[in-house]
Design a protein that fits this description.
Elements (H helix, E strand, L loop, with lengths): L41 E2 L5 E13 L3 E2 L2 E10 L4 E9 L5 E11 L8 E10 L6 E12 L8 E2 L5 E9 L5 E2 L6
Antiparallel strand pairs: 1-9, 2-8, 3-11, 4-7, 4-10, 5-6, 5-8
Length: 180
């Protein structure tokens, strides 16, 4: 966000009041009740840049199974009026980054009426000494584009991960003597 305002000016205020006459007597207590509601839709300006991370726990362990590689595939559905870059990195059980397992995906801005679906795939390998793939960290960077400037965001919009599939291209080797 390039500029944070010092103040916000509100105009075109609509006030509704019940037209009712009351009698106020001296030396009596009176209660006055007022209620205000403020509605301000959220829209993104042209200089917006946001960055955040999201973790997906996988908990895949190679202690009792022989696992050389796996492919994690998903569909990412963007209904936010922002372009998104998603960078995914896998981590082993000790928190070490698996450098051979990364994903980069650019998602175009979408809307509630016209969400953008993008398939994504991440190949993971236990050959780089990892015996456990504990989590997938998604680093998401969002930026606004001129065509979407001023589009209002509502609570129904977001980024969803659908059709999450785990494939084992090299198969699975089981040591039946160690499985309990």
């Amino acid at each position: 966000i390039s500029e944070t305002p010092d103040s916000i000016i509100i105009h075109d205020i609509r006030v509704e009041a019940e037209d009712k006459f009351i009698t106020i007597n001296a030396n009596e207590e009176h209660v006055v009740h007022m209620e205000y509601e403020f509605f301000s839709p959220l829209a993104f300006g042209k200089d917006l840049k946001l960055s955040f991370s999201y973790d997906i726990d996988l908990g895949i362990s190679d202690d009792t199974i022989g696992l050389d590689s796996l492919v994690l595939s998903m569909n990412m559905l963007n209904s936010i009026p922002l372009d998104l870059n998603v960078h995914g990195v896998a981590f082993d059980g000790y928190g070490n980054e698996l450098t051979s397992s990364t994903m980069d995906l650019d998602l175009k801005a979408g809307t509630l009426d016209n969400p953008v679906n993008s398939p994504a795939e991440l190949s993971l390998s236990t050959k780089d000494s990892a015996k456990e793939i504990s989590k997938l960290k998604l680093h998401i960077t969002a930026s606004s584009i001129e065509e979407m400037e001023g589009n209002i965001l509502n609570m129904e919009q977001g980024l969803s991960i659908n059709d999450l599939h785990l494939m084992l291209p090299d198969g699975l080797k089981l040591d039946l003597l160690t499985i309990r």
